Amino acid sequence: MSDDLVRYELRGPAVVLTLNRPDRRNALSRALIAALTEAFGRARDDAAARCVILTGAGNAFCAGMDLAELQESLTAGKGKQAPVWDDALRLAKLYDLIYTLPKPTIAAVNGAAVAGGAGLASVCDLAMAVPEARFGYPEVRRGLVAAMVMPHLLRHVSERTARYLLLTGELIDAEEACRVGLINAVAPAEQLLTRALTWAHALAEGGPHALARTKELLQLFSRQAVGLEEAAKASAAPRLSEECQQGLEAFFNKRPAPWAPGY
Hints:
Layout (H helix, E strand, L loop, with lengths): L5 E6 L2 E6 L10 H16 L5 E6 L3 E3 L4 H10 L5 H19 L4 E5 L2 E3 L1 H8 L2 E4 L4 E3 L13 H7 L2 H10 L2 E3 H7 L4 E2 L5 H13 L3 H14 L6 H9 L5 H11 L11
Parallel strand pairs: 2-3, 3-5, 4-6, 5-7, 6-8, 7-10
Antiparallel strand pairs: 1-2, 8-9
Helix pairs in contact: 1-3, 2-11, 3-10
């Protein structure tokens, strides 16, 4: 695991994992996805870690996929689709690892949690955010589809709310995210980790096997209809479209996409 990308800190009874790309708003690059996968695997096998708290360095929790890296891979790999499929599958496997981890997980959302960053919060068992945090799924505005995070979002909020978030791409604040069930609580920035650790101590009162079995049953009772690989493919396919290329170009040039009003 790269200590530069994910900090691993034991703060009994929890391990705190900190996304550490503050200069890129903790965007999910290939390297960060690999480091997170390794960190959660380490936490799963760490007897001293009774639960896992996930947070971010800087002012953002996670800005989602690293769009600059995506654009580079699409430009350099024209005609080579494998990197796009592989990238999507790696992220899908990370979400699944967190969601199925036998230990409880807490998202301590210290700032914006957008697109794949909102996905990270949604795959954790519990989530708490600072008042300044913003949540949303703006993928459609870039010609992308939030396929991998869709089932996790639908576990927390009503279909009406999910449709609003996924189809409009609008962001909501922490209070609204709490009201609709996307997160459990809102806490001031200076209390965020302290409150998350309080939850960690409460979780540690549960038997490790009982907690793991409870999580297994929760997963079983809310089993999604779409498999991991199918969801990854559904997410990857739009990345190869002309619409996505146009959306990314518009994003980096800070102008409306060609399909948007006012273009």
